[in-house]
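Input/output pair, single chain:
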Amino acid sequence: MSMKDGGAAFPCQFDDIKSQTGMSLRDWFAGQALAGLLACPLVRQITDGKEFATETIALEAFDYADAMIEARNHK
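Output:
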């Protein structure tokens, strides 16, 4: 994982060695953004049974994740 993806979302530490396995912070942020987007009844109605719309919403969730990682780098 790289800093571009935010590194590990939930790093573990064993004997003073940090593990970088598992989900990236970018994936975690995208999942959180996706949950928020899908909580909107209008978004659910738009995506219902429409593959192109669901892909667009998923890509938008990663756009939000990228923005959150960028904002973290500017603090």
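The radius of gyration is 15 Å. The longest helix spans residues 51-73.
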